[in-house]
Every structure is written in structure tokens, then in C-alpha cells.
Specification:
This protein is α+β, with helices and mostly antiparallel strands. It is built from 5 helices and 8 strands; from the N terminus they run βαβαβαβββαβαβ. Helix 4 links the parallel strand 6 and strand 7. The structure holds coenzyme A.
């Protein structure tokens, strides 16, 4: 197993580590959307135009959440910095501080979800995922838009998100929603002897 260190991309230690055989194996980012940049009408259109009915997830959605997670937990790109740990019945359960929004087909199947941890006026996306058969139809953008609309109406003023900088789909979804990239990270890896 190799070792890994996650650092800001401009960290001065980077040069020294690269000279000592560490190499960049992944890049990741952080981004922020402040409430004054939110365009509610545009976000509302993203929600209504998407396939599937979008609503907040509840405690009784846990089985559907675990089923979708099990089908997709190997799909997250990137290394340790953007790893997605398979959900447990506890981490799959929405709560006051762990909110979740999903998209459902007419037959009730959950095909997309976004989980957001809320601390006071700040919301941080934990993960967003869409069933492989329902990707590239605006569903990820829509569930994220629904979460921003609901939480901003409850007083959240700062939305944070992040992920692999090589994940074009989530970068584009975030840009559409108004997120501004403000953190760049690298994962440095070295094979252990
Ligand atoms: C990332 C993910 C959630 C995107 O879901 P999605 O419903 O396909 O995304 P959307 O349809 O809303 O697309 C958003 C944008 O990305 C683009 N896009 C989607 N998939 C893409 C791909 N594979 N490559 C390049 N662009 C892609 C769309 O065209 C759209 O661009 P636009 O807004 O400029 O038109 C989905 O691919 C997924 O579940 N991946 C595995 C889990 C993951 O990586 N989650 C994100 C990190 S938490």
C-alpha cells in the first residue's frame, strides 16, 4: 500500500516532497456559493425541468438510500481526498444536521441523492450521486439546486462543496449552480518500500 498526503496545491512542502519521490496522484477542489449569489428562479427551473420528482429525503427513505449507495459506491473518482465511504444505516439517515434531497421515478425508485451536512448557517455537501442509467440528464444539478433552495429558505447563507478536480460532471453542475472554486488541493503519493 502506498502512503498519501493531501496538501493545498500551493503548499511550500510540495516541492520538497516531489524531490523525495512523492508524486501528484489526484487533484481536488473546494468551492463556495454565498446566499447573495443564489438565483432562486434559475435554480427552481433546474429542479422542475429534471427527470424525476425531487423532494427532501426522510428517515423512512433509508432503505432506498442504501440500495442506491450500494449500486454506486465504486463510482467516485479521485483518491483519499475525495473517497466516498459506503453508507451505513446511521450515515444514510437524514436528520436535522444531515439533510438529503433525492429524485424519484414514477414507480418510487430513488435514482439520485445529495447529502448535505448543516452547521449553523453553513451547509457542506457530503456527496451527490446519480444512478448510472439516469446520468447526463440534469438530475445531479437538480437535486443540488433543490437542496440550496430549501436550505437557503431556512437561513443557510454559505454553501460549500468539493470533489475530484478531474470530475468534469460535478464541476459543471457546480458552475451552473453558481459555486466559485476557491480551494485547490493535491494528493501526493509514494509507494512504500
Ligand atoms: C457526478 C454525477 C453526480 C453527475 O450526475 P449527472 O446527473 O450526470 O449530472 P448532470 O446531468 O446534472 O450534469 C451536470 C453537467 O455535467 C455534464 N456531464 C455529466 N456527465 C459528464 C461526464 N461523464 N463527462 C463530462 N461532462 C459530464 C453535463 O453535460 C452537465 O453539463 P452542462 O451543465 O454544462 O450541460 C454522476 O456522474 C455520478 O453519480 N457520478 C458518481 C459519483 C460522483 O462522482 N459524485 C460526485 C462527487 S460527490
Amino acid at each position: 500500500m502506498g502512503e498519501a498526503i493531501v496538501l493545498p496545491a500551493d503548499d511550500p512542502q510540495r516541492e520538497q516532497l516531489e524531490r523525495a519521490s512523492w508524486h501528484v496522484s489526484a487533484r481536488s477542489f473546494g468551492a463556495q456559493l454565498d446566499v447573495d449569489r443564489i438565483e432562486s428562479e434559475g435554480l427552481g427551473r433546474l429542479v422542475t425541468r429534471a427527470d424525476g420528482a425531487i423532494r427532501e429525503l426522510r428517515a423512512d427513505d433509508v432503505d432506498a438510500v442504501l440500495t442506491l449507495d450500494a449500486a454506486t459506491s465504486g463510482d467516485y473518482p479521485g483518491g483519499v481526498a475525495t473517497r466516498h465511504d459506503p453508507l451505513t444505516p446511521h450515515s444514510a439517515a437524514p436528520s436535522e444536521s444531515r439533510r438529503a434531497f433525492g429524485a424519484f421515478l414514477a414507480d418510487g425508485e430513488l435514482v439520485a441523492m445529495t447529502f448535505v451536512d448543516v452547521h449553523g448557517a453553513t451547509a457542506e455537501t457530503d456527496f451527490t450521486v446519480v444512478h448510472p442509467e439516469w446520468r447526463r440528464r440534469g438530475v445531479a444539478t437538480a437535486v443540488k439546486a433543490a437542496s440550496i433552495l430549501a436550505l437557503s429558505s431556512e437561513g443557510v447563507t454559505r454553501f460549500r462543496t468539493g470533489g475530484s478536480a478531474d470530475n468534469e460532471a460535478i464541476l459543471r453542475a457546480n458552475a451552473t449552480l453558481g459555486y466559485v472554486r476557491d480551494e485547490e488541493w493535491i494528493t501526493l503519493t509514494r509507494e512504500s518500500a
